[in-house]
Each structure stands twice: as structure tokens, then as C-alpha cells.
Design goal:
The protein has 253 residues and is of the alpha+beta class. The protein is 25% helix and 26% strand. It contains seven helices and 14 strands.
């Protein structure tokens, strides 16, 4: 089974850059999208249906903002929109599909880069999301949480850790949260297979950052430890250029 996660930074913009053709070529069983920035009614979903995908969508209340989606060739037993906390669900940040032997989430975690207010919101989210997942694991113990976490975990995950040590997305308290999350029973699937530096999933549009590979690895497939034996591969598809992010892949039996 091949699962992709991709922050498309606007699905309509990505479609104009060849996203549908790329998706057809990659042909994942399931793709989790973040920052779709559109209502489902604002795009032609027959594009995806014609490829064999069922479309599940969780928009933000604010138009043109945030939002997540799951496109799946496998019929889920249940789809759950949101995490049950209104201030996050209004921003379209969580969508879950329950399959026979695991559950998959498309998650778009808040950014704190716009200022202190949103950073405080992000830190509150991290606490609340952790508690939500701890409860969810009791009901759905096999989880893959895919998406844009908006945090680099280790120095290896960012091009200039020294200069960015006080930047949102690489703050000590954010990095500690990722460590705590992993210690709570999750596998960073990319690092499970690849310990090398210079692998990133997001680049600023400024200063030719992508061409110079001055990036951040902030997108993850986190899988519960009980799925470890099923993991077969993980990769970052940096050649895909429909967004300022690139897709990430995990494969399992």
C-alpha cells in the first residue's frame, strides 16, 4: 500500500501546475492533502473519481484558508471530520479515515510564524492534539498521522539550525513536543528508513531556497509502533513542484 501526504498550498493552484497528471502517474492508494484552501464544490472532483479515488473533504469556515482532504482508492469503514474541538475544526485541520486494520489522518497543524498570538494558538493545539491522540489510540490503536506538522524535529531536519533556533517551527518547546509524541508510541517513518541530512519537504519561495535546497522537513507520516513490521519504505518526492511543499511517501504491506 502506498500512501502520500502533500501540503498543496491551494488545490486549485496545484491543479494548474499539473497536480492531477502527477497524481495519475504516482498512483498512490491514498493521498492526504493539506492546505487545500477550497470548498469541495469549488473543484472538479470528477478528475479524482476518474482515477478511482473517493474524495473526503474538511474545509475551514474561512474561505480560501487551510482545509484538509483524503483521496482514497480503498473504501474506508468510517470517515470522521475534525477532532471535536470547535476552534480547530473551524480551521479545517483534521480528517480521519478508518480502514479495516488501521486509521489514517490528514492533519494540518497550525503555523506560529505570523506572530505571538498564532504561536500561542499553536502551542495550545499541540497540547490538545496530544491529548486527543492519546484518547483516540484506545479506540483506534493502529494509526498513521500524515501531514504538515509545521515543526522540524532535529537539527538534521533544517538547513540552518543555528540561525533558526528562535524561529517558529524550530523552537525548543516545539521540538520537545515532537520528541514526546514519538516517545508516546510513534515512528517517524522517513527517519526509520533514512538517517541522512539534506532531506526537506518545504522551502521558502524567497532567495531561490528550493534551488539551493535550503529547506525544512516539516511534513511527516507518523505511524504507531504496532505498524512497524508493516513498513516497507518511505521517501520525500522533492522533484514535485506544485507547491512550496513536496509530497512525502510511506509504503506498507
Amino acid at each position: 500500500m502506498k500512501i502520500i501526504s502533500y501540503n498543496v498550498n491551494g488545490i486549485r493552484a496545484a491543479l494548474k501546475k499539473g497536480f492531477a497528471e502527477w497524481l495519475s502517474s504516482e498512483n498512490p492508494d491514498i493521498i492526504c492533502l493539506q492546505e487545500v484552501k477550497a470548498l469541495e464544490s469549488q473543484i472538479d472532483t470528477t478528475l479524482f473519481a476518474d482515477m478511482g479515488y473517493q474524495v473526503f473533504w474538511m474545509s475551514a469556515v474561512k474561505k480560501g484558508y487551510s482545509g484538509v482532504a483524503i483521496l482514497s482508492k480503498i473504501q474506508p469503514e468510517k470517515v470522521v471530520k475534525g477532532c471535536g474541538i470547535a476552534k480547530y475544526d473551524d480551521e479545517g485541520r483534521v480528517l480521519r479515515a478508518d480502514y479495516k486494520d488501521f486509521s489514517l489522518m490528514s492533519v494540518y497543524m497550525p503555523s506560529g510564524s505570523s506572530g505571538d498570538e498564532r504561536q500561542a494558538f499553536k502551542m495550545l493545539w499541540l497540547d490538545d492534539f496530544y491529548a486527543y491522540i492519546e484518547e483516540l489510540k484506545k479506540e483506534r490503536p493502529k494509526l498513521i498521522i500524515s501531514g504538515d506538522y509545521n515543526i522540524c524535529h532535529e537539527a538534521i531536519d533544517i538547513h540552518n539550525p543555528v540561525a533558526n533556533k528562535k524561529s517558529s517551527g524550530f523552537l525548543p518547546e516545539e521540538r520537545e513536543w515532537v520528541s514526546k509524541f514519538i516517545s508516546g508510541g510513534f515512528i517517524d517513518t522517513f527517519r526509520h528508513f533514512n538517517k541522512d541530512p539534506h532531506h526537506y519537504s518545504w522551502w521558502s519561495y524567497r532567495a531561490n531556497a528550493r534551488q539551493k535546497n535550503l529547506g525544512w522537513r516539516i511534513d511527516y507520516h507518523m505511524a504507531t509502533e504496532n505498524l512497524k513490521e508493516r513498513l516497507t519504505a518511505a521517501a520525500i518526492c522533492s522533484e514535485a513542484v506544485h507547491s512550496d511543499h513536496c509530497p512525502i511517501v510511506v509504503e506498507l504491506t
